[in-house]
Design goal:
- This protein is an all-alpha fold.
- The chain is built from 24 helices and no strands.
């Protein structure tokens, strides 16, 4: 045990734990005041940094396209001649399941209903134009921009871990070319790692807080369990136990198995809905939605309502409530999911990791929204089920399960959906606890220590349980928006870091082939170390 304690990066471990307690304990003691301050924090961030979030999202997407098409994209992540550690199907399922979590189960069937009532671009709700955007906006919010944000930390971390053989899975190590080794080991490096943990806790709190009512509703539908806070806390603790056991098992035994199982369940559900649902409507609406996103991608990526509230223009807060929230949510999760994508991408090229993540991630999310979302939209438009009224008078979770209940064999479908939600939740959070444990260790040879993984699996549920007592959707969204804000500057640093370092290393190679590039010539001293220099030949 003493040897394992020595491997713990105590400032990062204790600083992260202290930050968690510093946020949650006051909210528990003073919940009313806490909710008020949470609202003020949200307003401050979205009003002052909203444009920055959107610039980060679009800029990140364009940067990923550049890297994948440049010679940097041809760099192999691993030894010369190495093969991918995981076959493509398992790799795709792991990055997809870790990246989206239970959130896709919460939003895919019902997100259209919010846009249908309060569409973007100052349109009138309930109109044909509102339907068009309602079907498309979910695909956009869970599409290439979201996965580009995840890849911002994934690129430099994968490069330093697999190419330069830095066995420390830390965000601070990825910005070493900009701040220097001395600062990485000192205050600034520890601060970056603690901010990473803070972002992860905020993003995790949002996901768990959104997932608990959904799972509670599923258990209510199946077994008649009460719908209340106590039951939701029980659901969170149950999910914690599941992903704790999986994280304890490690990547190959736990996370890979859960991801493959989850992907199979998801495909069964989606194929079933396509077959028994309005197949033609789903196909036509899906094609139309994809076309809408492609045609309006840049407008959607930069929409901010700057004239809202002036001269009779409505201030709908649509960008703040949706696009900015989503970009902040992805950013809060980005270091964690980025580290995970980097860890499982050994043997692939940088471009393969980028294009694979953008394609498999975006396509997988789009499938959920196209099938489940358009099925729910069809119920509303055909008059079969008034989903909007259920959403407004009961709850989001009740609306989701009302949609599922309209399908044939509804009890089986609801059971499958509930199991799928639990496993999605477990897959995401065993991945997060795995990476969290890696960050607070001084070195990770293969996998972080088991007790360390198990500890963070349990700690992850603390903040969302606290936020459940504070109540509404906006409070849960705030956790991500505020927690992700400090990571905006760090994201820019990460992009500069990977470009600067990869370009430096490529220039040092005696020859650069036209296909995969195996980097094998590095300076004796890194240019960001005390003895190194960026001017070395």
């Amino acid at each position: 045990m003493k040897e394992s304690i020595k491997l713990i990066d105590k400032p990062t471990f204790l600083g992260s734990l202290a930050l968690l307690l510093l946020v949650t304990i006051p909210l528990i003691i003073w919940p009313d005041q806490g909710k008020e301050y949470v609202g003020l924090a949200r307003n401050f961030v979205v009003e002052n940094f909203g444009v920055t979030y959107l610039m980060l999202g679009l800029g990140g997407f364009l940067f990923m396209l550049y890297v994948s098409l440049s010679d940097i994209g041809r760099i192999k992540l691993g030894e010369p001649g190495s093969e991918p550690e995981f076959k493509t199907s398992s790799w795709a399922s792991m990055l997809f399941c870790a990246g989206i979590g239970v959130g896709i189960m919460v939003w895919a069937p019902i997100e259209w209903a919010y846009y249908y009532q309060s569409p973007p671009f100052l349109l009138e709700g309930g109109t044909a134009e509102a339907v068009k955007w309602a079907s498309a906006y979910g695909i956009f919010h869970w599409g290439p921009v979201a996965w580009s944000i995840y890849l911002i930390p994934a690129l430099p971390i994968a490069y330093f871990y697999h190419v330069r053989k830095n066995r420390k899975l830390k965000l601070s190590e990825a910005v070493a070319p900009l701040i220097g080794n001395k600062n990485v080991r000192g205050f600034w490096g520890k601060l970056i790692d603690v901010l990473f943990v803070f972002g992860m806790l905020g993003g995790g709190a949002t996901t768990l807080g959104l997932g608990a009512p959904l799972l509670n509703e599923g258990l209510h539908q199946l077994f008649g369990f009460e719908k209340n806070i106590t039951m939701q806390i029980f659901v969170l603790l149950l999910a914690t136990a599941i992903f704790g056991a999986s994280a304890y098992s490690g990547i190959k035994k736990g996370i890979q198995s859960l991801s493959n199982f989850n992907l199979l369940l998801a495909m069964i559900l989606l194929v079933f809905v396509i077959i028994v649902g309005p197949t033609t409507f789903i196909a036509e609406a899906s094609l139309s939605s994809i076309s809408t996103v492609f045609e309006n991608f840049f407008s959607m990526s930069t929409y901010l309502e700057p004239f809202g509230g002036f001269n009779g223009y409505d201030d709908t807060q649509f960008p703040q409530d949706w696009t900015i929230f989503y970009w902040a949510w992805w950013l809060a999760f980005a270091p964690t999911i980025g580290l995970f994508i980097a860890r499982i991408s050994y043997g692939r090229t940088m471009a393969n990791m980028i294009i694979g993540s953008l394609f498999y991630g975006s396509f997988g999310c789009a499938l959920f929204f196209m099938v489940l979302g358009n099925y729910g939209l069809n119920l509303q438009l055909s008059g079969t089920l008034d989903v909007v009224t259920i959403l407004n008078t009961e709850s989001q979770s009740a609306a989701v399960f009302a949609i599922l209940g309209s399908l044939p064999f509804s009890t089986i479908v609801i059971a499958l959906y509930t199991v799928l939600a639990v496993v999605f939740l477990a897959t995401t959070f065993d991945s997060i606890s795995y990476i969290l444990a890696s960050v607070v260790q001084t070195e990770v040879d293969d996998e972080p220590m088991r007790w360390n993984r198990l500890f963070w699996a349990g700690a992850l549920s603390f903040l969302p349980i606290t936020l459940l007592f504070l109540g509404d959707l906006q409070t849960l969204q705030t956790a991500s928006i505020v927690a992700g804000a400090p990571l905006i500057l760090i994201s820019l640093m990460l992009c500069i870091s990977i470009y600067k370092t990869a370009r430096y290393d490529l220039n040092r190679q005696s020859s650069v082939p036209d296909h995969e590039i195996d980097l094998d010539e590095f300076p004796e001293h890194d240019p960001w170390s005390r003895k190194g220099s960026w001017k070395d030949d």
